[in-house]
Amino acid sequence: MMPNSFKLTLNLEAEFFFQQGLRRNKVEKYEAAIASFDKALQCKPEYPEAIFQKGYALGSLGKHSLAIACFDKMLLLKPDDCWVWHNRAIALGKLERYQEALNSFERAIEFNPNAPTAWHNRGLTLCDLGQHDKAIKSFERTLKLQPDAYWAWYNRGNALKQLGQYEDALNSYDRAIEFNPRNLLAWYHQGVNYSEWGRYKKAILSFERALEIQPQYYKAWLHQGVAWEKLDNYENALACYNQAVEIVPNDDAIWYSRARCYAKLNNCDRAVESLRQAISLSPDKYVKIIQICSEFDAIRQDERFQSLIQY
Question: How much is the pTM?
Answer without folding.
Answer: 0.84
